[in-house]
Design goal:
The protein has 77 residues and is α+β, with helices and mostly antiparallel strands. It has one domain. Helix content is 43%, strand content 34%. The protein is built from three helices and three strands. A three-stranded antiparallel β-sheet has the order 1-3-2. Helix 1 crosses helix 3. The chain is elongated.
Length: 77
Amino acid sequence: MAIEQVEEPVWAGSDADDALLFFSNTGLARGLLQNLDDAARASAIGSLKETMVERETADGVEFGSAAWLITAQRRSY
């Protein structure tokens, strides 16, 4: 068995507006926003937009990501 840490950037969109559109249409975002009143929803979306702007690069909006890649082989008897 082998365990390997993998870290790669995740491209979220070509710019902050594109990334905001993508994330705001995910099931997770819809679920988190659905029970908020208009003012709270606008505040949350504004905060999300600020995060997207902070993550903008020349290549688009990028976030870090990490995972563990676990591989194993079954023994043959």
